[in-house]
Amino acid sequence: MKRHLFGASDQARVIAHLMKVNGLTLDGVWDHNKTIIDFGEIKVQHDLSKGEFGPEDQFHIGVGDNRSRSVISKQIEQDFFSIIHPSAIVESTVNIGAGTAVLAGAVINTDAVVGQHCIINTGAVVEHDCILADFVHISPNATLTGRVSVGEGTQVGAGAIVLPGVSIGAWATVGAGCVVLEDIPDSAVVVGNPGRIIKYNN
Hints:
This protein is 10% helix and 31% strand. By secondary structure, the chain is mostly beta strands.
């Protein structure tokens, strides 16, 4: 089995390091940007249709933008692998979907469910019974307290705090440092303390 990384920029470098500390070999790097030639010592490839993949080969999408990860995931026919930093604390009852990355110092507590292709970033806390849909990004040091639900593609900004039982819709954005006290609808952009809607994503 070979492990491939799609993406050759910032988030991809984070994932490559995460693979290294987990003792995993990076066998191939792919990116749509043809101006990116090299990724460390690996030559970047650009056309997935020309790839020669074995039946057990796997990918991880090392792209920070949630919508881009969603699009790319539909272009890759191979299975995806998740990866967890050794310093992260993930309780045994947690369910983590394929293609998700859990970074250094993150905590995911009892009975939480994390979807596919999510990023639980450095020092983020996902407390008990939270439910995260696919393509969610919980930014560094953000905290989801108990029983929070987060819809597909939503980003919770660095240092934000979401209070217990709050539901956040799909493709919403919670600004850095925001304190979310009540439910947020789909596509809303919320900032401040307490959090307030300032606009909607397209």
